[in-house]
Hints:
The structure is a single chain. With about 70 residues, the chain is an all-beta fold. The chain has a domain at about 5-40: Rubrerythrin, domain 2. Helices cover about 0% and strands about 20% of the residues. The chain has a three-stranded antiparallel beta sheet, with no helix packed on it. The radius of gyration is 20 Å and the shape is elongated.
Amino acid sequence: xxxxxxxxKDCNNKFDxxxxxxxxxxxxxxxxxxxxxxxxxxxxxxxxxSSNKDDVSSGPSCSTGTCPTCPTCF
Length: 74
């Protein structure tokens, strides 16, 4: 289940909600003031690759500079 970060536009409270796939959860509301005037925030995440230095697909660059999976090559 994903965790979403929200901000309440009424009291400026920033909070996280664990959101399930069940539709019976109801509409999310601020945990501080109970307002439904909230906004979902964009949050960042990271992906950690392999610690193996020979694995070029998980690193930020590759030895040849021409691989299709390396973000710096294409």
